[in-house]
Amino acid sequence: MRVLRQIHARLLTQSMPMASFSFGLCKIIGFCALSPHGDIDYARRLFYQIRSPNIFCWNSMIRGYLQSQTPSKEPVILFRKMVKRGYPNPNTYTMAFVLKACSIVSAMEEGQQVHASVLKSGFGSSPFVETALVNFYAKCEDIMLARKVFDEITDKNLVAWSTMISGYAKIGLVNEALSLFRDMQKAGVMPDEVTMVSVISACAASGALDTGRWVHAYIKKQLIETDLELSTALVNMYAKCGWIERAKEVFDAMPVKDAKAWSSMIVGLAIHGLAEDALEEFSRMEKAKVEPNHVTFIGVLSACAHSGLVSEGRRYWSSMLEFGIIPSMELYGCMVDLLCRASLVEDAYTFVQTMPIPPNPVIWRTVLVGCKRNKILDIGELVAQRVLELEPHNAENYILLSNLYASHSKWEMMSQVRKEMKDRGFKAVPGCSSIELDGLVHEFVMGDWSHPEANEIRDILRDISKRVHAVGHEPGISDVLHNMVDEEKENSLCEHSERLAIAYGLLKTKEPTVIRIVKNLRVCGDCHEVTKIISAEYRREIIVRDRVRFHKFVDGSCSCRDFW
Question: Cβ(209)–Cβ(550) under 8 Å?
Fold first, then answer.
């Protein structure tokens, strides 16, 4: 920048035609705005000194703000100023840059206005703009509009295909992502490592291991470069699909590992409950002189939480601060979770009250869950009040409070909370579990019998019920905290989504195939006990990924050692 300022000074002191002066100034603005060694604020000051900046200057400024480490709507504001001036007219690059800016800050309304400008200006057929539109709608999670724009592209290039696949993967629509990937192959478009990262991410999100393995084999067969990002995606996929051993093999084979790769491995081991292994990897990371980031410590603290290592967790928290990492909300949440899981709810409550940033609803909810688990009513009511102030429309908060009252048999208070929830039209998120079979992901929702093989699933569930009762299991009806008779509670437990998915796995696969389930909520205590019995009675290994961690059931025991 020192040299550039000297060039700028030379321009100001030299006598030259205005056109030459403006041209030189535009080039300086372009460097300042776009170069890693530039200065966007300096570029802005120069930009506003030009009476009529050309399109190169406008695009440089828009793109410069787009590359900023702190995303903002500044590119959109600049675009509006340019349109209001009426000169110069935006080009395809302008539209694409502004659409990308809208996608980063999820500015749906502004992006749609830009889309309207695209149609008016006749840039709708530009491949550059078309792909930017698909990316914009996909990033804003309006996947139907993204697909509509994608389908209207006559000549779809690699970027368009990859962007649409990534959009599906981002929101967990694995079947759609993989179907589009197959269409891409049929169209003769060769994927690259960027495409494969999206496909692998879709498999990770849905726990589709068989498909993920096939995709990995495809990458090898097609000799697609397995760069650092793709290797890390594979580690993440295998970990999230329940095959942590394979994740470790891929990780160990990586010639170069950055902080993201190390963090993916540590987080993977943590969610599998392998605390010692996760902490050992962290030690190896330090020895390799790779500086940990906040994600690394999320993995480390999660590992401590899942194994009840409170003193170790507190030590790593201090270590994190020594690294100069400013705790994020998620990191504070990890520490609160660690304390609550260890039944140190009062300590967790004090920790939350002394946080330098206002706790978000997730953190207060974690304390509320701890209060319910440990039957601490006084703190629980105070915490419930805070979380309801922050999120008055979230049904989960009302359910947790009603469950807290139910755990103390305060049925009248529970009924009041349930009535308020009903009167305001709030509905709980239903339990949903999925299982991948023959490349397709089958979903089951609690109490939903719309599956085409529902009768066969019922038969399997009846057989499970007989075997479970035969070994002396008493249903943990305390997990169903409604004020209903015990028989109704038992029937309700039998319809939990993970039991439906496990029953379907038993129906469609044979020993020794591993049954792999993904659930959107935490596994309840009774389903946990029943799954242990199923693993022994049917001699099947069952791996369940719930909202919090993995449970590996083998021969009547679980990898979590009943601590989760």
Answer: no
d(CA 267, CA 372): 27
Q: Residue 498 half-sphere exposure, CB side, CA atoms within 13 Å?
A: 27
What is d(CA 522, CA 358) in angstroms, rounded to the nearest whole number? 26
Q: How far apart are CA 412 and CA 402, in angstroms?
A: 10
Stated pTM of the model: 0.82
Q: Give the helix/strand (H/E) hosting 237.
A: helix 228-240
- Asked whether residue 9 carries a pLDDT value surpassing 70, the answer given is no
Question: Which residues lie below 8 Å from residue 411, measured CB to CB, with a gap of 6+?
Answer: 405, 483
Structure tokens at 318: 């201090």
pLDDT at 459: 96
Q: Is the pLDDT of residue 20 over 80?
A: no
pLDDT of 487 strictly over 60: no
Count Cα neighbours of 110 within 13 Å in the Cβ-side half-sphere.
21
Q: Cβ(515)–Cβ(535) under 8 Å?
A: no
**Cα angle: 94, vertex 99, 105; to 5 degrees:** 130
Alpha helices in 342-410 (DSSP H): 345-353, 361-373, 377-390, 395-407
Q: Partners of 544 in the beta sheet?
A: 517, 551
User: Is the backbone peptide bond immediately before 127 cis, with ω within 30 degrees of 0?
Assistant: no
Cα dihedral across residues 256, 261, 266, 271: positive or negative: negative
Question: Which amino acid would we find at residue 169?
Answer: A
Q: Which among 464, 440, 441, 442 has a CA at the least distance from the CA of 451?
A: 442
| Residue type present at position 564 | W
- In angstroms, rounded to a whole number, what is the distance separating the alpha carbons of residues 398 and 418? 7
Q: Work out the end-to-end distance of the chain between its first and last CA atoms, rounded to an integer number of angstroms.
A: 54
Taking a C-beta distance cutoff of 8 angstroms, is the pair 407, 429 a contact? no
CA 560, 236, 276, 371 torsion: positive or negative? negative
Q: What pairs with residue 516 in β-bridges?
A: 543
Q: How far from 459 is each of 190, 464, 503, 530, 537, CA to CA, in Å?
A: 46, 9, 9, 17, 16
Question: Is the pLDDT score of 227 beyond 80?
Answer: yes
Does residue 126 register a pLDDT over 50? yes
φ/ψ of 322, rounded to 5, equals -65, -30
Kindly give the pairing relationship between strand 432-437 and strand 515-519: antiparallel
Pairing of strands 550-554, 542-545: antiparallel
Write phi, then psi, for 437 (nearest 5 degrees). Answer: -140, 130
Q: What letter does residue 73 receive in the DSSP assignment? A: S
| DSSP 8-state assignment for residue 164 | H
CB 316 within 8 A of CB 324: no
> Does the structure show a pLDDT above 60 at 68?
yes
CA gap 266, 248 in Å, rounded: 10
